[in-house]
Design goal:
Number of domains: 2
Bound molecules: adenosine-5'-diphosphate
Binding site for ATP: 16, 205-209, 280-282, 328-332
Binding site for substrate: 90
Distance between the termini: 32 Å
Order of helices and strands: EEEEEHEEHHEHHHEEEHHHHHEHHHEH
CATH superfamily of the largest domain: ATPase, nucleotide binding domain
Number of helices: 15
Keywords: ATP-binding, Cytoplasm, Kinase, Magnesium, Metal-binding, Nucleotide-binding, Transferase
Organism: Acerihabitans arboris
Shape: globular
Active site: 147
Number of strands: 13
Largest sheet: 8 strands, mixed
C-alpha cells in the first residue's frame, strides 16, 4: 500500500521538507522556508520539473507548516491532507532515551523538550516543528528521527569521558555523536551495493559539519562528534578537538566569557578561522590553488585530522573493509578524498586517480583490499523510511505455537 510521508527538518529560522510516496521512494515535492521570523520568509517548492519561489510573511514554524500544506493542496500535489499519513521529524538530540527512531506521543514530546538541556538551540525548535504539523495533520503518525540514536550502540568505554564519573551520572555528560541518520543511510546503501552486511565501514560525512563513524556489521561503534557537534574533526567554522586548557587561557588573556568562547569555537574557527577567507571548502580550494598559504594550511589541517581518525577507527574494528565519502565535500571533492587517503596505503586504502576524479561509485585501485566509495547521503529518505518502519509497519501478530 502506498503512503505519503513528509520528512521535516526544522532549524531555528528554517524549515526543510520533502514529501515522499512510499515505499516506492518517489519524491513528490521538496523545498524549504528560510529566514522564518524576519517578516519576509523565502519559500521554495520544487515538484516534478516545476519550481516556485516566493517571499511570504511568516513568523514561525506553525505558519510555515500551514503555508506548505495549503500550497500542496492548491497546487494539486495532494488531493487532501488526509493522504499524508506520516510525518518524520529530524530531531537533534535523543539523549540516552531514544535508542531508535520513535513514534512521538505526548510523553515522547516532553522527553524531546527535556533533552533541550543538552541541545538548547535545536531540540526546542524541533519540538515546535512537531507541534506545527500535529495541529494540522492530527491523523498522521509523527515519528522522531534522532541525530544521536544510531550511536547508542557505542560501548561504555567508547562513550565515557575520563572526567569524574559523577558528571556522567548527574548531568549526562558523555559522547552522544551526531549525523547518525546520514552515517546509517550510507552504510545501508553500501551494504546494499555490495550485497553483504558483515562489513567494517568507516563513514566520512564531510559537509559544513563533519564527522567520521566506525560501523561494524551495521552498528555504530565509534564516532568523532561528542557531547556536542563541536567535537572531533575540524569543520567549516567549528574547531573540533583542541586542548581544553586553551579555553581558560583565552578567557583570561583575551577577556572572553564562556558564551563568547563557544561562539568563537562554533562560528569563527575551522576552515574559516585558519584561512581567514571562508568556511566554504570550494573557496578554500581555489584560494589554495592560487597560492594562498593559509588556505593550503587549512586544507592540510582538515585532511590530516580525517586521516588520523580513519587510522584510529581501523584499530577499533581490527581492520576496515570500506571507506565511504559522503556530504558536500565528500561527494564532490576528488582533491580532498585524495589527500585524506594519502599515506593510508599500509591499511590497504589505495585510490585510483581516474575513478576518483570521475566521482565513480567505487574509487579504489583494482585489487586493493579496502573498497573506497562515494555515496550521496539522503537523510530525508532515511527519515521517510523510518516513518514506515516504526510508525506504519503492520503490527506483528503474535504467533502462538503449539
Ligand atoms: P551541510 O553540512 O550544510 O549540509 P553540505 O553537505 O551541503 O553541508 O556541504 C557543504 C560543503 O561542501 C561546503 O563547504 C562546500 O564548499 C562543499 N563542496 C561542495 N562542492 C564542492 C566541491 N566541488 N569541492 C569542494 N567542496 C565542495
Amino acid at each position: 500500500m502506498t503512503h505519503l510521508i513528509m520528512a521535516v527538518n526544522s532549524g531555528s529560522s528554517s524549515l526543510k521538507f520533502e514529501l515522499f510516496s512510499m515505499p516506492e521512494e518517489i519524491t513528490l515535492a521538496k523545498g524549504l522556508f528560510e529566514r522564518l521570523g524576519t517578516g519576509s520568509a523565502a519559500f521554495t517548492l520544487r515538484a516534478g520539473a516545476g519550481k516556485q519561489q516566493a517571499n511570504v510573511a511568516l513568523d514561525n514554524h506553525q505558519q510555515a507548516a500551514e503555508h506548505l500544506l495549503d500550497t500542496l493542496l492548491q497546487s494539486g500535489i495532494v488531493a487532501s491532507l488526509a493522504q499524508i499519513d506520516g510525518v518524520g521529524h529530524r530531531v537533534a538530540h535523543g539523549g540516552e532515551f531514544f535508542k531508535d527512531s520513535a513514534v512521538i506521543d505526548d510523553a515522547a514530546l516532553d522527553e524531546i523538550e527535556r533533552l533541550g538541556a543538552l541541545a538548547p538551540i535545536h531540540n526546542p525548535v524541533n519540538a515546535r516543528g512537531i507541534r506545527a504539523f500535529q495541529r494540522r495533520l492530527p491523523h498522521a503518525v509523527a515519528v522522531g528521527v534522532f541525530d544521536t540514536s544510531f550511536h547508542q550502540t557505542i560501548n561504555e568505554a567508547g562513550y565515557l569521558y575520563p572526567l569524574p564519573y559523577r558528571y556522567y551520572q548527574d548531568y549526562g555528560i558523555r559522547r552522544y555523536g551526531f549525523h547518525g541518520t546520514s552515517h546509517k543511510y550510507v552504510a545501508e546503501a553500501c551494504a546494499g551495493l555490495l550485497g553483504r552486511r558483515d562489513l567494517r565501514i568507516i563513514s566520512c560525512h564531510l559537509g559544513n559539519g563533519a564527522s567520521v563513524c566506525a560501523i561494524d556489521g551495521g552498528r555504530s561503534v565509534a564516532t568523532s562528534m561528542g557531547f556536542t557537534p563541536l567535537a572531533g574533526l575540524m569543520m567549516g567554522t567549528r574547531c573540533g578537538d583542541i586542548d581544553p586548557s586553551i579555553l581558560p587561557f583565552i578567557s583570561e588573556h583575551d577577556h572572553k566569557s564562556a558564551q563568547q568562547l563557544l561562539e568563537i569555537m562554533n562560528n569563527a574557527s575551522g576552515l574559516l578561522g585558519v584561512s581567514g577567507i571562508s568556511n566554504d571548502c570550494r573557496d578554500i580550494v581555489s584560494a589554495a590553488e592560487s597560492g594562498n598559504h593559509r588556505a593550503a594550511l587549512a586544507l592540510a589541517m582538515f585532511t590530516d585530522r580525517i586521516r588520523a581518525v580513519i587510522g584510529a577507527y581501523a584499530t577499533v574494528m581490527d581492520g576496515v573493509d570500506v571507506v565511504i565519502f559522503t556530504a558536500g565535500i565528500g561527494e564532490n571533492s576528488a582533491g580532498i578524498r585524495r589527500e585524506v587517503c594519502r599515506n593510508l596505503g599500509f591499511l590497504g586504502i589505495r585510490l585510483d586517480d581516474n575513478k576518483n576524479k570521475r566521482h565513480a561509485t567505487f574509487i579504489q585501485q583494482e585489487g586493493a583490499p579496502v573498497m573506497v566509495t562515494v555515496i550521496p547521503t539522503n537523510e530525508e529518505l532515511m527519515i521517510a523510511r523510518d516513518v514506515m518502519r516504526v510508525g506504519l509497519a503492520p503490527t506483528q501478530e503474535v504467533q502462538h505455537v503449539g
